[in-house]
């Protein structure tokens, strides 16, 4: 497949006509559609196409359907920075324009005969990799493919890393030996986090009578688990938010839905005697893959948003149709890269199909349930108008009847009032 502007794609097709059958796409979206219907053996893509050639290569690299297809990236303005980014995206070969037909043919031959180069493997396995390892025949190959996808996700150009200071705060907050003084000292190393915590503890959400100026007192009042939740939430909100894509996700509605799902999940978890704070985080973070796709692949995600406008298609189905992967897969891989706990990784990766998770099905099912309740009550926006059905296996797992579900929905309205106060506190 040749992805380039018409004048150049015609020329490239002529170069290859004696030896290869070619199809042409003029931009990234056309290329993705063609990939769905007739995957090629090699993709030759120009850097400056609408949709960005590098982003197309990244999308191919993180897709379980297409990441085996080699990509040759061409550019009239090569630079070492672009070459390195292309390598991280999994590009097989980089070719500067102008080039001779023999040079292009040689790169294509090389791409066809050599396997797609995977990034250096990560030390830890994601839930998908663990599932493959526990599976049957062919598991090592599947495990390797999923690990390669995870390593490509972390190298998406512009994707933030999880800050070391935040990671240390999380580590301390979960330690049995940590003290309020030690945690406060670590928080002071991040002024924005310090300001957020003091703002939150003095907000109407906590309703304290006296203003708190001491970070140590704030830590004691909030508790270590609440601090850990706040740090994780702040990193996702600040690290992945703060961008504009007018035709993409309604970000304000998206974060509202995320926080609402977190509060409902915590409340439901207490009723069902499941770990409440983990459920809160799982609800808060379950859809982070949507933000990754919307922010870093805007030209492609706009097409997804267009498909769901009619209210007849879920956003996950639209993602699969347009991109060949879903936000759950991307979010799960990001969670693994950011070293979220294994149970959170499972929640993010399997929240649309909880019974397919190999572990933590109860927690995953609880977040799935809370997500649907929040969507039913129209608190925020999940990106589409189609409210998903609750998985029947989840209803069975929690022995829920329709009446029981109605009771959960009624009590969730109070939880969403608390979520509103929390959102106001975060600003």
UniProtKB/TrEMBL annotation:
Domain Response regulatory: 1-112
GO biological process, alphabetically ordered: phosphorelay signal transduction system
Matches recorded under SUPFAM superfamilies: CheY-like (SSF52172), HD-domain/PDEase-like (SSF109604)
Residue ranges crossing the lipid bilayer per the database entry: none
Compositional bias of kind Low complexity: 122-139
Segments for region (Disordered): 117-139
Residues of the signal peptide: none
SMART domains: HDc, REC
Domain (HDOD): residue spans on this chain: 159-354
InterPro entries linked to this entry: CheY-like_superfamily, HD/PDEase_dom, HDIG_dom, HDOD, RNase_Y/CdgJ, Sig_transdc_resp-reg_receiver
NCBIfam families named in the record: HDIG
Protein name: Two-component system response regulator
Organism per entry: Handelsmanbacteria sp. (strain RIFCSPLOWO2_12_FULL_64_10)
């Amino acid at each position: 497949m040749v992805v380039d502007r018409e004048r150049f794609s015609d020329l490239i097709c002529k170069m290859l006509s004696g030896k290869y059958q070619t199809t042409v796409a003029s931009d990234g979206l056309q290329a993705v559609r063609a990939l769905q219907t007739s995957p090629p053996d090699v993709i030759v893509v120009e850097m400056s196409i609408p949709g960005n050639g590098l982003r197309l290569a990244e999308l191919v690299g993180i897709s379980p359907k297409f990441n085996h297809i080699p990509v040759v990236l061409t550019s009239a303005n090569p630079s070492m920075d672009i070459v390195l980014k292309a390598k991280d995206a999994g590009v097989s070969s980089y070719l500067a324009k102008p080039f001779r037909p023999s040079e292009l043919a040689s790169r294509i031959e090389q791409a066809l005969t050599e396997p797609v180069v995977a990034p250096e493997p990560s030390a830890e396995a994601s839930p998908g990799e663990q599932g493959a390892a526990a599976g049957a025949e062919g598991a090592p190959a599947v495990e390797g493919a999923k690990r390669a996808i995870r390593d490509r996700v972390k190298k998406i150009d512009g994707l933030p890393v999880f800050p070391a200071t935040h990671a240390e705060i999380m580590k301390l907050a979960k330690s049995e030996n940590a003290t309020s003084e030690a945690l406060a000292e670590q928080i002071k190393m991040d002024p924005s986090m310090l300001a957020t915590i003091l703002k939150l503890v003095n907000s109407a959400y906590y309703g304290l009578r006296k203003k708190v100026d001491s970070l140590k007192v704030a830590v004691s009042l909030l508790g270590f688990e609440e601090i850990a939740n706040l740090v994780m939430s702040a990193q996702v909100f600040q690290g992945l938010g703060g961008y504009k894509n007018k035709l993409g996700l309604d970000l304000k509605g998206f974060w509202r839905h995320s926080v609402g799902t977190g509060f409902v999940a915590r409340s439901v978890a207490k009723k069902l005697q499941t770990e409440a704070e983990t459920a809160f985080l799982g609800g808060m973070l379950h859809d982070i893959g949507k933000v990754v796709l919307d922010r870093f692949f805007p030209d492609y995600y706009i097409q997804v948003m267009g498909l769901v406008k009619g209210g007849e298609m879920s956003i996950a189905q639209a993602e699969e149709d347009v991109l060949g992967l879903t936000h759950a897969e991307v979010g799960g891989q990001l969670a693994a890269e950011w070293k979220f706990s294994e149970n959170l990784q499972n929640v993010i990766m399997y929240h649309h199909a909880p019974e397919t998770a190999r572990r933590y099905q109860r927690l995953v099912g609880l977040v799935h349930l809370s997500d649907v309740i929040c969507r039913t009550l129209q608190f925020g926006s999940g990106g589409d108008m189609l409210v998903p059905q609750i998985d029947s296996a989840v209803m069975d797992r929690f022995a829920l009847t329709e009446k029981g579900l109605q009771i959960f929905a009624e009590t969730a309205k109070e939880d969403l009032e608390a979520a509103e106060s929390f959102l106001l506190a975060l600003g």
